[in-house]
Write a structure and sequence with these properties.
The protein is an alpha+beta fold. The chain has one domain: Riboflavin kinase-like (Elongation Factor Tu (Ef-tu), domain 3, Beta Barrel). It has five helices and eight strands; from the N terminus they run αββαβαβββββαα. Pfam families: Flavokinase. Its EC number is 2.7.1.26. One of its GO terms (molecular function) is ATP binding.
Length: 203
């Protein structure tokens, strides 16, 4: 079994990723994983969104929400680095008027857990991209996520364009996977129904 992301981080070791070539990108499945989540999934993550490097939206057309280190432990302690899918929800304070009703629903998401080798990060991060067009940022707001499955390993790339192409495929794969009945029901997971003060991350 591959070491978990947390085990690599504890050893201050960055895993050596495979480099994705044009040939390697040629044929990716449109749907992955079993018809319903299997261990260690579902994994619940909860935490305030913090500022990251700002590269997702600017460089890649894929804005991401970064969770604090202590918020990602439920996933990093049981999972290897890579790209995952599930559902997420932004929970702003009641007085916050910057959000539309559709911004606050439970939405499909794709997330990266690892060191982003194309950008040579030095620390483990978890970055969530919610598959929805927001009109405002949500730094500091609480995010709740239920991680339900694994898409692919973390990779390095020969170009930014190759990375973007894989990210776009990841989004499509996540949406396809989440349309299955065994996954749809997790959009109603208890974590999305609870008041903010009562929510805890779990495995």
């Amino acid at each position: 079994m591959s070491p978990t992301a947390a085990e690599f981080a504890a050893r201050a070791e960055i895993p050596l990723p495979e480099v994705r070539t044009d040939k390697g990108r040629a044929a990716r499945p449109s749907i992955v994983g079993p018809d319903s989540p299997e261990g260690p999934f579902p994994v619940v993550l909860v935490g305030p969104v913090q500022k990251g490097f700002g590269r997702g939206g600017k460089d890649l057309g894929c804005p991401t929400a970064n969770l604090p280190d202590d918020s990602i432990t439920p996933l990093s302690s049981v999972a290897k680095t890579g790209v995952y899918y599930g559902f997420a929800q932004v929970v702003p304070p009641h007085e916050d008027k910057g959000f539309r009703a559709e911004d606050l629903t439970v939405l499909p998401m794709v997330m990266s857990l690892g060191w982003n080798p194309f950008y040579k990060n030095k620390s483990l991060t978890a970055e969530i991209h919610i598959l929805h067009e927001f009109q405002t940022d949500f730094y500091g707001r609480e995010m709740r996520a239920v991680v339900l499955g694994y898409i692919r390993p973390e990779l390095d790339y020969i170009s930014r364009e190759a990375l973007i192409e894989d990210i776009e495929t990841d989004k499509k794969v996540a949406l396809n996977c989440l349309q299955r009945p065994g996954y749809q029901k997790y959009a109603n997971e208890a974590v999305f129904q609870q008041p903010g003060s009562e929510v805890q991350a779990s495995m």
